Fold this protein.
Amino acid sequence: MPTLSRLIVPALAAILAAGTALADEFSTDRVKIKVDVVASGLKFPWAVEVLPDGAYLVTERAGRLRIVRDGRLLDPIDGVPEVAARGQGGLLDVALSPDFAEDRTIYMTAALAYGGGSGTGVIKARLSADERSLTDVETIFRMKKTGRTNRHFGARIAFGTDGTLYFAIGDRGDMKRGQDFMDHAASIIRINTDGSVPDDNPFADGRNALPEIFSKGHRNAQGLVFDPVTSGMITAEHGAKGGDEINLPKAGLNYGWATITYGKNYNGRKIGAGSDAPGLEQPAFYWDPSIAPGALVVYRGKMFPEWKDDVIITSLKFGLLSRLERDGDGRVGEEERFLKKDYGRLRDIVVAPDGALLVTTDSPEGRILRISRAGDAS
């Protein structure tokens, strides 16, 4: 008969070999959480969306669109257009049409090569019924002026309550473009889902700014959502050395980059006029030192009622989640930080239908993390 130790040791070895089968647990100020790795083997995953059947649709920066179903990473989907996968560029955000269950339409942002450089574009397509290919693929927007740098593409997407499409474009690594209203760079853009300009855009006549521009002076917004508390927009934006910002963009307003900022240049020199100037908007919150925000959500899931209406932001630099408490009017209060460098650079974050958080890690061995309530059988 085998000894007890001969039975236990192989069992422990099997558990250790499984590795990610064991969830990590962490204490936060208000609740204990657990973190499971629900997908791995992704190369620099940039964005994740939950499909109606619970599977995950994921972009990889190199230009692949993939599905994760029941823990299995499926083959890349055919039909994704060629992207400029250099530096921070490539295939970036993905968003499901509000009517995806009926029209199977998705929207993607990407760095595209044209005009002697590269720029942010928006691609519209249909996901085939067998989920193996894209059809009816068209580019519905390309920024007017390209750039030769491979950074600051912005690119996060959000749908307004009226069905219009909002997305961010960074300054493309050239701060002088931040205050040029005839340049799409450093802006929040608003278009219809066919690429046309909404009649009620703040600069729809094109006289004082490009008609697609909704707001200006955003250095590089990679987080963008609509707030169920205020019905307004919230962005998370990369500053320079210090000065990452949470902004609340409104139609036609100017958020200052690079005339005002709470950060400094990487060489330590002052940027622009300082932290404020007449006619330029102040952030709702800023970080110094920078955390390099990747994305954000306003939490309204059922799993963490303690976090209702708080803003949760991923950090690339410190590999943490930043939770900003808010009052009943949506004003930002105290900050809490957790998951500090436990999983590397954290990129996207979304709320799953059950209230768990899904987070992607920005790595050549990227993963999707599921953050749920510790002790919850789900």
Observations:
- The first strand starts at residue 24 and ends at 27.
- The helical segments are 4-18, 100-103.
- Residues 1-20 have pLDDT under 50 and may be disordered.
- The longest helix spans residues 4-18.
